[in-house]
Amino acid sequence: MKPALPSLVLSTQQQLGLLFEVSVAPKPVRSSLTMTLLSTTVQHLQAAWDVHPYLLLSVPLALYLLISNVRSYLKLRHINGPFLAHFTYVWFVGSVARGKMLSTLQELTYKYGPVCRIGPNDLLVGDFDEVVRINGVRSPYVKSDWYTTIRFDVDGGDSVVSLMDTAEHDVRKAKLIKGYEGRGKGQDKGWMDKVVDKHLVELVRLLREKYVKQGREINWTNVMRYFSADVMVEALMGEAWGDLQTDSDIHKFFEMSDYSTPYIHTVGSWGSLRWLTSSWWFIRKAGPKVTDDHGLGKFISLVREEVSKRFRDPDSKKGDMLADWISQGLTSRECELDVILGVIAGADTVAVPMRTIFLYLITSPLVYSKLKDEITTAIKARAISEPITNQQALKLPYMQAVIHEGLRMMPISAFGFPKRVPAEGDMICGIHVPGGTDIFPNNLAIQRSKKVFGDDVDVFRPERWLIENTRGPEHRSLMVRHIEVIFGHGRWQCPGRMLAWVQLNKVFVEVLRNFDFQVGNPRDPWKLGVYSSVTVGDFWVKGVEARPE
């Protein structure tokens, strides 16, 4: 039977007495009293260990947690936010995990203003000018370690996004950007049009033959992601997977994406979890394997095989991004990692606005009618070809208004990737923010600025974008710059944004010139998840052949 725990009350009194004697004793006596104090302390710790070892171990842990929470609170105590966010990541993680960030971000903005505390070391900033400054080319801000959550390579490599060193990031991105923008080796002026057009034709064929003619409902979630994936894969490697042609998730890539998106953003909201799950040890143990028969692991193996083949014979294919990257001097590993990133970041991400804008469009009869009229008028005037070119699409003012308004209402990412305040600290919206703090851009708040977009910011109203309804060209230009922040800014701007815009500029014209649509289930049109990225599932529509005018 274990002995009873010693009376720590008496022991503590004795030790305090000894401590007082040490403090007042003459120097020759002090060392002897000090040794007596240390000896009694050790004896009591040993006795406590014999009786309750785990209790003793919990004491330093509790002290560490207490000190950490107090330090976290004090660091940003002058900035308002949800109560729990001052001490712990529980509030932030819980909010992201629920997938309800659309309403949460609106509530935070209304309650706390443009700067809000969302974690012990995290702020949400919804001021356009500050977000642009923080992400500027010459900004001293660097990536937060949130970016490490996008690591997926078991062999320890980084894509341009997960690469943490700013100088290395800039060098890598400079080699990638020409290919992304259609200015690379073998890419002529109409390269992007050609890549997108090929799959637009396939999209229209699929909708007509498999769905419209047979009177079947269309899973708009799937057809849009298959379209954008085939465009992205062909642009990167010269040949699409064929998801659109087969109307299937051939490699179960999107099955993996639907699972991993909530996981990545939830884990990325908690520093300790982020550190664990982004470690190379964890990735090797729990990450995708090239031996997997589906999902990201299968996709990585396919990319490795293609990149290896292209490095053995660089002239086998010309005109795609990979060919340009090889000519720019990227290594095989760098090409492999950035091709994988390009598909992950570009496929389903571009499909999101194709779904969200489409829902706003087909549930707004006046808007739908105006856009159809603009398309019909342009066809009669022979102002657009079939398929429409990107340059022709840019001359359709109402369609541009619909796209911009749809992106404003439902940004691709509700809040952007965080940057870290430089060591010396900074002033944000007139508030001093200490160095080392992570700053998340509040994209939703920026797109709901009443000062820029008017008082009815929660209403889908494309007319606000027509030049006659703005305060002049400069004001409309400011509105456009607000939208562009969704794709990042400065050195951190998304390199694939141009290809994304080309798809958006074309897809609505081509499907609406051929068909008319309505929502399949008006009571529950889709399943929407807003983490940082937006996910859309179970979005069904009904289509019929468009009536000739």
From TrEMBL:
Swiss-Prot/TrEMBL cofactor(s): heme
Family: Belongs to the cytochrome P450 family.
Species in which this protein is naturally found: Podospora pseudoanserina
Protein name stated in the entry: Cytochrome P450 E-class, group I
PANTHER family named in the record: CYTOCHROME P450 (PTHR24305), CYTOCHROME P450 MONOOXYGENASE (PTHR24305:SF77)
Record bears the keyword Metal-binding: yes
Keywords from the named record: Heme, Iron, Metal-binding, Monooxygenase, Oxidoreductase
